Amino acid sequence: MINSLTSLRFFAALYVFLFHIGRSHEFPPVIRQVVHSGFTGMSFFFILSGFVLTVRYWERLPSYRAFVVARIARIYPAYALAFVLAYPLIVADSPGSVQLLNLAANVTMIQAWFPNLIPVGINGGSWSLSVEMFFYALFPLILPLAKAFEGDRRRWTLLLGLCWLVAFVPGLVQRIIPQPEMMWLYYASPPYRLAEFVGGMVLACAWRQAVLQPKIAYVAASGVAYLALCFAGLSSINLTFLNVVAVPLYLAIIHYAAAYRPAWLEWRPLVYLGEISYGIYIYQFVSLPYVLPHVDRLGLGLGATVLIGFAVTALMATASFHLIETPLRKWIRGRFGGSPVAAAAE
Question: Residues near 66 by Cβ (< 8 Å), separated by ≥ 6?
C-alpha cells in the first residue's frame, strides 16, 4: 500500500464522521454545507479501493478464492463486531419481520441489494461494505480486461470520462424526475456505485502505463468546483448528483498523491490513522449513538462533541485493529485458503 494513499483514507473517514455528526448537530455556516456533503467520502473510498487493488495486483493476481478470502478476512471481523454492538440500538424499534430480514442481510453482507431497508438497518453505514463485496466479486474478472486495454492519453481520458458520467447521471435522472422513495436505490445500490470503483481501476491502469500525468492544477480546479457546488446547496438536492464534481476531485487527489507522495502524507502518525481508518468508519455508527447524547447533556459545545466522539471512535478502532482485525485476518487466511499475495492488499 502506498503510504500517502493510506493517509488519505483517514481524511475520508474523518469527512464521513463529521457528516454523521452534522446530521444531528449544527455546524458553523462557513463550513455547514461542506460538512453536509460528507457522504461523498464514500465515493472516495470506492474510487480508492479500485485504484489500490489494481496497483497491488498489477503484477500477479492470485486465484479467485484466495483473493475473495483475503478481502473477507480484511473487512468481516470488524464488520461483525460493529454489527453485534449496533444491534441493540434499533432492535427495540423495528418490527420482528424487519429485524429478521436485516439480520439475514447483514450477516451475509447483501443488505445493499435491499436499499429500502437501509434507513432502518442495523449499523446503517454497513451498506458500503456490502457494495465493496460486490466490487471484490467482480475485480478478478475486470482486472485482466483493464490491463489488456491499450491506448493513448485520449483513450484513457475518454474511458475515465465514461466512468464519471455513469457515476453522476443516475442522480441527474432522479433530479429531473423526482422520486424520493428511489433515493437509496441511487445512492446505495451496488450496480450504481460500480462506475466509481471501475474509475479507480482505470486511473490505476493509466498511471501504471504512464499515459496520464497528475497535476496540482487539476486538484485545485476540481476542489474549487466541489466547494462551489457544496455552498450552492447541491448536496441537499441529490446524494449522487454531487458526483459531477466529487468524482473528478477524488480522482485528481488520488492520482497526485500516488504519483508524488507528498512528505506530509507520508508522516507515520498520519499513516497509522489511515491504517485504523476502517475502524473509525465502521465503529462511528456504534460510538456516536451511545456517546453523543451523554455529551450533549453536559452542554460542552460542538467542538468538545466532535473531539470526544472522535476520541472514543478512534480508541475503539485502535483496539479493534490490534486485538481483532489483525489476528483474525491471519487466522481466516490460513484457515480458508488465502495466499500471501492476496493478504498484502488493503
Answer: 337, 338, 339, 341, 342
Digits of tens for pLDDT over the chain (346 positions)? 799 999 999 999 999 999 999 988 999 998 999 999 999 999 999 999 999 999 999 999 999 999 999 999 999 999 999 988 888 776 656 666 667 887 888 899 998 888 777 766 666 788 999 999 999 999 999 999 988 887 778 889 999 999 999 998 887 877 777 666 666 777 888 999 999 999 999 999 999 988 888 889 999 999 999 999 998 877 665 677 889 999 999 999 999 999 999 999 999 999 999 999 999 999 998 899 889 988 988 888 999 999 999 999 999 999 999 999 999 999 999 888 755 544 444 4
Helices (H), the chain: 3-22, 29-36, 41-56, 64-90, 96-107, 127-148, 153-176, 183-188, 190-208, 216-231, 243-260, 268-275, 277-298, 302-320, 326-336, 340-344
Q: pTM above 0.85?
A: yes
Measured distance CA(169)–CA(302) in Å, rounded: 36
User: Does an H or E element contain 112, and which?
Assistant: none
Identity of the amino acid at 191 = P
Retrieve residue 141's grid coordinates. 474478472
* Lookup: cell for 140: 478478478
Q: Which domain holds residue 255?
A: 3-344
**Count of structural domains within the chain:** 1
Please name the residue that has the C-alpha cell 456516536.
288
> 25: alpha, beta or left, given left = phi > 0 and alpha = psi -120 to 50?
beta
